[in-house]
Amino acid sequence: MAMTYGYVYVASVAMGANKNQFLKAVLEAESYQGPSLIIAYAPCINHGINMSRSQNEEKLAVRGRLLAPLSL
Fold first, then answer.
1. What is the pTM of this model?
2. Is the pLDDT assigned to residue 36 strictly greater than 90?
3. Is residue 4 a contact partner of residue 37, using CB atoms and an 8 Å limit?
4. Residue 9 β-bridge partners
5. Within the chain, how many helices (H) and strands (E) appear?
């Protein structure tokens, strides 16, 4: 919804999926001359995932293939 305003910087990130892209989004948001919104996916044990696999979980979410909680 914020993107439709046309003057708000909006980024959707997952730090564990791509740290360089995450940093780029944060730097762009900080330097943007107006309101900025960063939506960050952060998996949690309450999501039913094995936290030792949280970076893989983030990569799957970014790729749009988050189908079910991962388990070992």
1. 0.68
2. yes
3. no
4. 36
5. 2, 2
